[in-house]
Amino acid sequence: MVGQVSEAGRAKASAPEYQGALGSLSVNASLAEVLDRGVEELQAAERAGDRREAARCGLAVAEAYRRLGRIEEADRAWKASYRAARSAGHEGAMAWALWSGGTLARQRGALRLAYRLLRLAAEMGERGGDVVVRGYSLAGLAETGRIQGDYAAVGRLHEQLLAEARRRGEARHTVWALEGIAQMHRNTGAYDEALALFEEAAETALRAEDRRGWAWALRGIADVVSVRDGEVERALSLLSRAEETCREMRLSSALAYNHKMRGNVLYRAGRYAEALELYERALEEFREMEEPRGAALSRLGLVKAHARLGRDAAQSAVELAELRSMLDRIGLRHARDMVEKAAAELGVGPLPDDAGGGPGAGGPVLPAGGAEALRTADVKGLR
User: Fold this and answer.
1) What is the pLDDT of residues 43-87, one digit of tens each?
2) Which of 131, 170, 194, 236 is the S-S candidate for 185 at Cβ 3.0 to 4.6 Å?
3) Is there a contact between 139 and 176 (Cβ–Cβ < 8 Å)?
């Protein structure tokens, strides 16, 4: 795989969510710059009565708010963008707004809503002849299924989207697909395959000047070299390099996940007190941006670190059971399995049955709408 960088690796990454007057913005523009420019151009479009331009600028504003963790403002912004696009009768702009709303819904843990909005975005993008937003929406559907842990449902779609991104020379989507496939390999214990794909993603992102994708790829590499090889200092160094980019671009979610991963690396190294501080920091960051998945994973790290530092086993079991119940409600099967493994690792299992039996306990975890959306996803529409 590492030798397949060629086409997408030669292309520079672009940010198609920055449109209209904001189309000149780089994919690496800081979110503060995107937000300032976006609000300024949005107000100008509204004064001019240009609804299509208002929809375009509103999309960039919504995405800046979302990535900064300003959830309520992001929610208002994507809806306003959709209304402006609908009043202008522009299906492509409507699709982009729906994509933004679906991505926000996934970030907030509202997965059924995410499937619904992303499926609508894909359909509207096809009707409007916008293959880019259709591709982004299909990728959003695939990522939603992946974070739920249903790899059988989304693995083939990831591979198809990767092939299509390579064919079209879309570096940013190539990086996204490589990282998604790598994460599935990592989570199923195929560390060598995961590392090769994360390294290819990092190389592709670097060539394409995609600093956001590069930072996420470094996080993946750090995770694998830590869990597979026990290379603590190398992992921490990679995370420090990624953190610089996250801070410069003000990537709030990526920074919080970076801190959580640093906690994981320290925990694996037996440096439990240090890990505890990082998990607490990440938990606060995730709570500020209302991101329940990241918050749950940080809480899991906290429970494990506290247990290693001497917390009562019964209390640890209660906290793990609460976490499992919460993850069941969200529908995150892989994260739920991590809780069960943590209970076994800490010697506090089996957990009380009252939290079990949810959607993560076995069998399909995708809601009916999500399963249908993934079943009918067709990458041929991107050609």
Assistant:
1) 999 999 999 999 999 999 999 999 999 999 999 999 999 999 999
2) 194
3) yes
